[in-house]
Amino acid sequence: MDRTLRAALAASLAAVAVPASAQLKAWEEMGEEALHAEGAPAFHAAAKELLAPCDGAGNLRLPKRYYQDYRLTPRDEKALGRGLATAKRYANIATALEDGYLPSAGGYQPGLGLPLMHPKLLLDNRFDLGKPDVLTYIKKRGQPKYRLVGLTYVAGKSRPKDMKDVDFDEGSRLPGATAAARTDSWDYEEDVCVIVEAGSAVGTFIGKDVPDDCAGGTRFAKLWRLHAWPLVYNPEGLFHESNPAVDLLDREQRFGPLCPKSAKAAK
């Protein structure tokens, strides 16, 4: 990212900080229906088959169905475990807000959930499995309770040449195996405008929707991103751009907290 863009976004982040307890007002003011999936679920499964289980030590593990789909090596699991460890940290949405993540002004996104974006991480042009740029949640209807469901990584204007932390088996069913999991799983948006609203919300606008030449925000000619679903099994793939199971869980409200204290070791 050039210095001009970096300075512009840094300036937008200098707004007066808003307490975490007040930051979710950007969502609350939209009304409950804007915060949930619409239409009938396109995917059906038992909730326990979809959600990441916890081991006896309270650590998150990949949903069991991924082990039927992929041949994951210990190195794969170690790398993906970095994302799971981050997910456990941000199981409480208040912690994410306190660490600098801000609600997206757009509300619920089909196949994704409710995004919290971290503007400062968008500046670094780096891909780190332990530092997702975006966290996505689903919400209990009528209650201020949220469940983390997805992680998104933004690499900036250039696609990473390699997922250095992950060494996938060539015989796996991960998207395109070694080469594609490192490259083809990334998608991008062109002409993106990011506006931080008084330090309390992030507005993202793409192409023709960019307002007034992105006045007051930061404009990107291209943003590369990778969606990861280690918390909710995705029948479309671990790194697919959307997850129908997220909409299912949101519509049917079949989800609870990550690693509840009463959780027993996963078998």
Order of helices and strands: HHHHHHHEEHEEHEEEH
Computed over alpha carbons, the radius of gyration is 18 Å
End-to-end C-alpha gap: 46 Å
Total number of distinct structural domains: 1
Mind sketching the topology for me?
Elements: H1 3-12, H2 20-23, H3 25-28, H4 47-50, H5 65-69, H6 74-89, H7 93-98, E1 102-103, E2 114-117, H8 119-122, E3 134-139, E4 146-156, H9 177-182, E5 187-197, E6 201-206, E7 218-228, H10 244-252
Antiparallel strand pairs: 1-2, 2-3, 3-4, 4-7, 5-6, 5-7
What does this structure look like?
- A hairpin with a 6-residue loop joins strand 3 and strand 4.
- The chain has one domain.
- By secondary structure, the protein is of the alpha+beta class.
- The protein is globular.
- The longest helix is centred in the N-terminal third of the chain and has 16 residues.
- 25% of the residues lie in helices and 19% in strands.
- The protein has a seven-stranded antiparallel sheet.
Summary of the model, kept short:
The protein has helices at residues 3-12, 20-23, 25-28, 47-50, 65-69, 74-89, 93-98, 119-122, 177-182, 244-252; strands at residues 102-103, 114-117, 134-139, 146-156, 187-197, 201-206, 218-228. It has 267 residues and is α+β, with helices and mostly antiparallel strands.
